[in-house]
Specification:
Oligomer: single chain
Radius of gyration: 33 Å
CATH superfamily of the largest domain: Immunoglobulins
Number of domains: 2
Shape: elongated
Structural class: alpha+beta
Number of helices: 2
CATH architecture of the largest domain: Sandwich
Largest sheet: 5 strands, antiparallel
Order of helices and strands: HHEEEEEEEE
CATH class of the largest domain: Mainly Beta
Helix content: 10-25%
Length: 187
Amino acid sequence: MPVRRGNRQKYIRWIAVFLVFAVALPFAVVVLSQPGSDETNSTVEPPSQPTEKPSTSNSEDESLEVSPTALPFVIEQAPNNKAPSITLDGPDCIESPGEGAVVSIAISANDIDDTSVVLDLAALVGEESINLTSSINEGPELVVPGIASATFPIPPTEESYLLLISHATDFDGAKSEAALVIPFRCD
């Protein structure tokens, strides 16, 4: 049994040495092959016209001597799409949330890179989401910057507050979310 254990330790030692070299060797090659890693050369040479150099069989030397080439076409990048901003504003509290009571809120939206957004509105009651988008008086599409209003009956809930969630989505797909909590007791 001791002979087997010695072989196992020797095997593990060889694997450890191999792993050290497998990690350290590529790192050393990258660090040492970078141009400008020579600390004795402190002068900066001005850029000059590329000149042809004799070809060598070393592929590492070839990759260092590559100069940029102008393309015959232009690649235009679309600007990054910014998400719209949205805020909800409503009453500070609801004194009597009885049957038939209604709530009015304002939904403000703005988008710096679009002209309109699509709004949605929902009330979260426990684990259930009640869609209130049809209660937005101006409809779900809003020209930005703009303010929409929504009036809806208070959904029945056992909670001591009403949680509203609204989203603004632009036509490029960027989406923002806002929440409003309205307590049922005014203190």
